[in-house]
Amino acid sequence: MTPQQRHNCMAHIRGKSTKPELLVRRWLWNHGYRYRLNVKSVPGKPDIVLRKYRTAIFVNGCFWHGHNGCDKYVAPKSNTDFWINKIEYNKERDQRNYNDLHGAGWHVIVIWECQLKKTIIESTMHDVEHMLSKNLLELYKP
Predict the structure, then answer these.
(1) HSE-up of residue 21 (Cα within 13 Å, Cβ side)
(2) Which end of the chain, N or C, is less packed with Cβ atoms under 10 Å?
(3) Ramachandran region of residue 95, left (φ > 0), alpha (ψ -120 to 50) or beta?
(4) Does residue 1 fall inside a structural domain?
C-alpha cells in the first residue's frame, strides 16, 4: 500500500462501538445488565460503565493495546518505531486510567478482543458476570 492508502485505512478504524464492544454490550443487555457508554465523568472514559456495580469495563483491541502473548498482536514490519511507541503509550495510558479508577473506588474489568471468539465468548462473559456479582457483594457488605 502507498502511504496515502495506509493512512486512509487507518483513519477509518473506529474507537467507539467496535465489533468486540458491541458483542459485550449485547451480551450484557440480554442478561439484564444496564450500563452507560463512554461516561466522561468517570476517569479514563471507559467503554462501558455499570454504576450499580461501581465497575468500568474496557474492551481492548489486542493490536491497539499491545496484548502480550496474543497472536493478534504482531509488531508491524513498516514504520516499526512509530507503532511500537504508539502502542507503548497506549499501554501506559491504560495503566494510568486503571490506577485512577482504582483510586476513585471503581472496579476495572478488561476484556481483550481475543477473549470474544465464538468458541470462548460465553466463558469470558460468565467470568465477567462472576466479577460483577463479586463487586456488588463487596459494595453492600456491612
Answers:
(1) 18
(2) C
(3) alpha
(4) no
Helix (H) or strand (E) segment spanning residue 69: none
Query: Can you spell out the DSSP letters for 110-139?
Result: EEEGGGGSTTTHHHHHHHHHHHHHHHHHHH
Q: How many CB atoms lie within 10 A of CB 112?
A: 18
The total number of structural domains in the chain stands at: 1
- Grid cell for residue 51: 454504576
Q: Which helix (H) or strand (E) holds 31?
A: none
Tell me the whole-structure pTM to 2 decimals: 0.87
Domain CATH code at residue 19 = 3.40.960.10
Length of the chain: 142
In the sheet where 48-50 sits, what is the strand order?
Answer: 36-37, 48-50, 55-60, 107-112
For 52, which DSSP code?
G
